[in-house]
Specification:
The complex is a heterotrimer of chains A (443), B (336) and C (237).
Chain A lengths: L2 H4 L3 H25 L2 H28 L6 H16 L4 H31 L3 H32 L18 H20 L4 H21 L1 H4 L15 H6 L1 H10 L3 H33 L1 H11 L1 H6 L4 H27 L9 H15 L4 H30 L6 H9 L3 H16 L9
Helix pairs in contact in A: 2-3, 2-17, 3-12, 3-15, 3-16, 3-17, 4-7, 4-8, 4-15, 5-6, 7-15, 12-13, 16-17, 16-19, 17-18, 17-19
Chain B lengths: L1 H38 L6 H21 L10 H29 L4 H23 L12 E3 L1 H8 L7 E2 H23 L1 H11 L1 H6 L4 H26 L4 H6 L1 H11 L4 H18 L4 H7 L18 H15 L11
Antiparallel strand pairs in B: 1-2
Helix pairs in contact in B: 1-6, 1-9, 1-11, 1-12, 1-13, 2-3, 2-4, 2-9, 3-4, 3-9, 6-7, 6-9, 7-9, 11-12, 11-14, 12-14
Chain C lengths: L5 E9 L7 E8 L4 E5 L6 H8 L4 E9 L2 E2 L5 H6 L2 E4 L11 H8 L8 H10 L1 H5 L10 H13 L5 E5 L7 H16 L3 E5 L3 H7 L2 E6 L2 E6 L1 H6 L1 H7 L3
Parallel strand pairs in C: 3-8, 3-9, 6-7, 7-8
Antiparallel strand pairs in C: 1-2, 1-4, 4-5, 9-10
Helix pairs in contact in C: 3-6
The chains are: A mainly alpha (443), B mainly alpha (336), C alpha/beta (237).
């Protein structure tokens, strides 16, 4: 980083921002014109969600230098929130084992709390260790004794359709903030333990917790049906079939010269885009306000010189915990939005490359430390992620066009999809090398 | 007799698998810890380096098999292994030249190296999937069992059987040879000592005339060897699947950190700590206890602490405990 | 009169592109001579050492060793032509044994260095005793001996020591100084920075008093000790 770029005037940044925005807009409009508007809107919707995730990670990395590679876990917790908030409760499950389940869970929580209190209160090392271990062992046995039978009963209820506790039957939009809360709670626990240790350890700790969250979603069938998936989540927007049956809608579509089926799908996607845009704008405004507030300045001061900040009496770990929780909460909100858009929770589909490391590419490419940069990065990289596959296919068609049909040709054609990961890595490395501050650098 | 049966069951389902898995983790963790010690960053591409090395070895194995070359009762993959290591070395040296060297010369911060390694991870992942696909590959050939359950039962007359597969034997023997060779190299040879010196105190190593680029080069070659061997052993013992190798990153890092990052001895110890905990926490002890306890006390449940799907949680919990109690790891690692 | 063995004349420069720290500084050391740099905190003593060793950006002035211009050589290259440097801190490999530390000191030598190691052990007998112990487990004074021993392994003609007695007890300090005199007697030139100015000047053939990166007084060690102004300002009366 040379001196000149480090003090780049804000105006050159504004120019970069507008240029990148224009490029993203052109790419999306181009998709609409040359492929289909439905696809363009699909990209926009996931782009909006990706932008929100990137915003959350940028808060942690760009403002505070925290290296979180557990994004997938926070996103998945958001997904879990949609099920627990919006699905109707499975009454039978609560009747047969509700009290038992809750007391089991309370037992588990109580065990941990008592163990922590014991660890803090007992002064003598040996007594303390023995007591804590004893509490944990006894607590664990009691917890399993209460919890296991309850789970068995719940999972036995009509497993083909339920086998879980269901949700609260509330509007699904409520799940978005709840998803944020879930993620925040998990982030608080992980932050309490791993922040203050070195940065590599936070990375490994977050990587670990995200794997555990996914394992939990896959295996705790009573909670959200595990790998049996929860499908048919309620929607915050209209259903296509209802629109198509609505004579008023059909008439408007006819007036616009679009057939009613296409119009209904576009309408639904537009509705989502509208909702997501509202969330993105709110979060972006909040993030910008935070960045410019004394709190944001202090955060960046800590990031740039932790030792000096600590010497000035700033509680670095506490500040880091705040921003870590906030950033993770944003990822949780985005995760809930994504599951809402999908209309189903499929724990098997969460993969770290897609939900953790891809978000990192977005943040780095967009420009770490710049909120707008993160948003642009989110859109751009998502666009690439979607479009590289057809591009790869096309490229492979071209390469193999002169070949005779055979094993090699079909292998090359079949493998084109994997170009995606390769391209993402390449983009990340190229940006790091030639434009390490990203497309829209920090002001 | 019941006591013996219990021991055999324990050996068959816990001790042997954990020793084998521990050897694999230890080799993987050694690679991570060497990179951390010399190049001073946590290499997130290590799991994919293992996958790459294993893939190359599998391709060569298939080629050998198609030409009718085999290794008798041992898997052909062992013959292909040296070639796999050589190609992986070249690949890593190329990556270093094209990617990492730039940041080394710029003296970038460790976390930048980590992010760069994410990029490398993506690309390697893409390359491996592009060439060999995402599916399971079995490439073990040769004899299957050193001793099979049936033979063991016939031999001892015990109710419980004990099986030791060839791949398990090979894993442990290879791991012992590799670790012995590595420690001989690090502690007895001039180049090995210069690597330790560089890891210990970079500035003083430079003042002593140690060439950093040479140290880095040797490190990548050793890492290629360790990663390929670890990957091939894991693949022979189980199967090869790119995504599984990526997921090995967590237990491998846990092993390296638990042992003390940058400390080779610690990496080995950490590998076994993680492996034994993972296997024993997820093993259902009903059978073993059934032999040991009087009938009236026999457990009804499986006596399994956690289902096997939570094995990641085990590495993770051990990692957290060690970090909280002893942040530099069981053996003194680097504390930056 | 022929040039001194080490002649660093008119050095001006600083770290990287930062402000100049040294201004027209001159340091010379003859064969087998002990030269000591003293001065108040922040006088640029350690910086002067680094300048001589090529770890600083020098834009004017030049450094010659044995008549040869070495101004543009890298620190590593300077080790190759007979300069040894013992930094003030982090000057040993803590995770390696004493003997391995010495071996690493001899890393650039292709010939048999067992003779040199023997000489180091004769000079510092305690190191022979502890040769299989990790250097990090030794006491402060012993660590300094390892550090000096490591630098001697290249058989330097000029040994540069940056505060070799920092943080050791007075008894150990006296012993270290005795050893340094012994090293000088074998014909090795010594350039060292010292915080313990009085004791250091007592063994010095030549002393440099630095203030704010400039030569303030230059004379023999004894003459500086006798100079009332030096005594008043720098030796505490």
């Amino acid at each position: 980083m040379s001196q000149t770029t480090a003090h780049a005037p804000a105006s050159s940044n504004t120019l970069r921002l507008w240029l990148s925005t224009a490029v993203v807009a052109l790419l999306i409009i181009g998709t609409g014109m040359f492929q289909s508007w439905n696809l363009a809107l699909v990209i926009v919707n996931m782009g909006l969600i990706s932008a929100i995730m990137a915003l959350g990670v940028n808060l942690q990395w760009g403002f505070a230098g925290l290296f979180n590679v557990g994004i997938m876990g926070f996103v998945a917790l958001g997904g879990l929130a949609t099920v627990l908030v919006s699905m109707p409760p499975v009454e039978e499950a609560w009747q047969v084992a509700g009290i038992q389940l809750i007391s089991g869970l309370l037992m588990g929580v109580a065990t941990i709390v008592v163990a922590i209190v014991a660890a803090q209160k007992i002064a003598k090392a040996r007594t303390r260790n023995i007591t804590v271990v004893a509490i944990l062992v006894v607590g664990f046995v009691l917890y399993r004794a209460l919890f296991d039978p309850a789970v068995g009963k719940i999972e036995a209820i009509n497993p083909a359709q339920f086998g879980n506790i269901g949700g609260l039957n509330l509007p699904i939009i409520l799940a978005w903030p709840v998803g944020g809360l879930f993620a925040a709670a998990a982030a608080w626990v992980i932050g309490k333990t791993a922040l203050g240790l070195r940065s590599d350890y936070l990375a490994i700790a977050t990587l670990g917790i995200s794997e555990i969250i996914i394992a939990m979603l896959k295996n705790e069938d009573w909670l959200a049906r595990g790998v049996k998936n929860v499908i048919g989540l309620p929607r915050p927007v209209a259903y296509e079939v209802d629109l198509q049956r609505d004579p008023g809608f059909a008439e408007t579509a006819a007036n616009l010269g679009i057939d009613v089926t296409t119009a209904s799908t576009l309408y639904v996607k537009f509705s989502y885009a509208f909702l997501f845009t509202i969330v993105l704008v709110i979060l972006l405004v909040l993030a910008q306000l935070a960045l410019k507030s004394p709190w944001g300045r202090m955060m960046r001061a800590i990031r740039d010189n932790e030792v000096a900040a600590e010497a000035m009496g700033k509680n670095v770990t506490a500040r880091h915990l705040q921003i870590f929780v906030l950033g993770s909460a944003i990822c949780g909100i985005a995760g809930a939005m994504m599951t809402t858009l999908d209309g189903q929770l499929t724990p098997g589909s969460y993969q770290p490359l897609r939900f953790t490391f891809l978000i990192w590419v977005m943040v780095i490419v967009g420009g770490s430390g710049n909120n707008y940069g993160a948003v642009i990065g989110g859109f751009l990289i998502w666009f690439l992620w979607v479009q590289v596959e057809p591009l790869g296919n096309w490229l492979m068609q071209l390469i193999t066009s002169g070949m005779e049909d055979g094993a090699l040709k079909s292998h090359l054609l079949g493998s084109a999809a994997h170009m995606r990961l390769f391209t993402m890595g390449l983009v990340l490395l190229l940006v790091l090398r030639f434009s390490p501050r990203g497309l829209v650098p920090e002001n | 007799m019941d006591f013996l049966n219990a021991i055999v069951a324990l050996a068959n389902f816990v001790i042997i698998p954990a020793t084998v898995y521990g050897s694999q983790l230890a080799l993987g963790a050694l690679g991570v810890t060497l990179i951390y010690g010399i190049l001073r960053f946590s290499n997130f591409a290590h799991g994919d380096t293992m996958a790459f090395g294993t893939m190359v070895t599998i391709l060569i194995t298939w080629w050998f098999q198609s030409m009718g070359i085999n290794f008798g009762i041992l898997p052909t993959a062992l013959l292909a292994l040296p070639f796999g290591i050589a190609i992986t070395s070249l690949f890593l040296l190329g990556t270093d030249r094209v990617v990492y060297k730039f940041y080394r010369e710029k003296k970038s911060e460790p976390v930048i190296f980590v992010i760069v390694s994410l990029g490398v991870m993506f690309m390697m992942n893409g390359i491996v999937r592009f060439i060999i696909g995402t599916g399971d590959q079995r490439f073990a050939d040769g004899e299957r069992f050193i001793i099979s359950t049936r033979e063991f039962k016939a031999m001892t007359g015990l109710q419980e059987g004990l099986a030791i597969r060839f791949t398990q034997g090979i894993t442990v023997v290879t791991a012992i040879i590799v670790v012995a060779a590595l420690f001989y190299f690090l502690n007895r040879t001039r180049t090995g000592k210069s690597m330790r010196a560089f890891s210990d105190n970079e500035d003083l190593a430079l003042l002593s005339g140690i060439n950093p680029e040479r140290v880095v080069m040797v490190t990548w070659i050793i890492v290629a060897g360790l990663a390929t061997i670890a990957g091939v052993l894991y693949g022979l013992d189980k199967t090869f699947k790119p995504f599984t190798y990526f997921q090995l990153l967590l237990p491998i890092f846990a092993s390296a950190i638990v042992g003390g990052l940058g400390n080779p001895l610690g990496a080995i110890a950490g590998g076994f700590v993680i492996a034994f905990s993972e296997v024993s926490v997820t093993y259902a002890f009903k059978k073993v206890l059934g032999y040991l306890l009087p009938e009236s006390l026999e457990p009804d449940s499986l006596v399994q602490l956690l289902s096997t799907d939570y094995k990641f949680a085990v590495s993770f919990v051990i990692l957290i405990i060690v970090l909280l109690v002893k942040p530099t790891g069981l053996f003194k690692g680097k504390s930056v | 009169m022929s040039d001194p063995y080490l002649n660093a004349a008119g050095l001006t420069g600083g770290y990287g592109t930062g402000a100049d720290i040294l201004h027209d500084l001159t340091l010379t050391v003859d064969k087998g001579e002990i030269a000591v740099i003293v001065g108040p905190n922040g006088a640029g003593k350690s910086t002067a050492m680094k300048a001589v060793f090529g770890m600083l950006n020098i834009h004017t002035g030049k450094v010659t060793l044995d008549g040869e211009d070495i101004t543009n050589l890298s620190p590593q290259a300077r080790v190759g032509i007979g300069m040894g440097f013992v930094p003030q801190v982090n000057n040993i490999f803590t995770s390696m044994t004493v003997e391995e530390n010495l071996e690493m000191g001899a890393f650039i030598r292709e010939d048999d260095y067992s003779q040199t190691m023997e000489q180091v052990y004769e000079l510092f007998p305690i190191l022979r005793e502890k040769r299989n112990q990790f250097a990090g487990e030794l006491s402060g004074g012993q660590r300094q001996q390892v550090a000096v021993g490591r630098a001697l392994m290249t058989q330097p003609k000029l040994l540069m020591l940056d505060e070799p007695t920092a943080g050791v007890s007075p008894i150990v300090m006296d012993e270290l100084f005795d050893r340094i005199i012994e090293v000088a007697r074998t014909g090795i030139s010594i350039l060292m920075v010292e915080q313990n100015a009085r004791q250091a000047l007592e063994i010095a053939d030549k002393g440099y008093v630095l203030v704010q990166g400039r030569n303030r007084f230059t004379d023999t060690g004894q003459a500086l000790l006798a100079d009332p102004e030096v005594r008043k300002s720098f030796l505490g009366g």
